[in-house]
Amino acid sequence: MAGIIFSLVVYQRMISIEKAALYIVAQVIGAICGACYARLVSNWDLYDAGGKGVNHVLDGHALWQALLAEILATAFLVTVVLNTSYAATKLYGHAPIAIGGAVLVCHLALLPLDGCSINVARSLGTAVASGSNDRKQWTHIWVFIVGPLLGGVLAGLNPLWVDRTLEPTTHVPAPAPALTA
């Protein structure tokens, strides 16, 4: 996700700009290949009836509504990812549940509005694989690029997520022991 990569480069300097660029290029290429493969192996009628997986602002909603929703949903998701990825929470292993729950909430909120992007590469991949502009996916693509990027920046500006790497003197309670039968 570009938002997380941006936050790691700019705010924490945890990865280099070159490495971040490679991550983004790899994610976009992977998304395009994955969407093209899904189109290739799918029943064409079923694939087309499902909207080809493209993101577009649905009728009855304004572009600004979709943009604001994408910004807020991406900021929420990136905040959850950043807050569950520091050393103290890694000990407990709850990150997958929290991140999966955040993705679920974002999808439940945004699917009826714009198909829920929250990921620039996913939107670009399906738009390329669709091969057309039937659903205005290329007309609306800026919403699905700008929204997640601004959401990632917004999440990165939140001072609460700053990596709290544990010092040797920091006490972290041990995880509860596993139940045995």
UniProtKB/TrEMBL annotation:
Report keywords, A-Z.
Membrane, Transmembrane, Transmembrane helix, Transport
Q: Which residues form a coiled coil?
A: none
The record's InterPro entries line, in alphabetical order, gives:
Aquaporin-like (IPR023271), Aquaporin_transptr (IPR034294), MIP (IPR000425)
The organism's superkingdom is given as Eukaryota
Localized where? Answer: Membrane
What GO molecular function terms would the record report? water channel activity
The entry's protein name is: Aquaporin
Protein's organism: Klebsormidium nitens (Green alga)
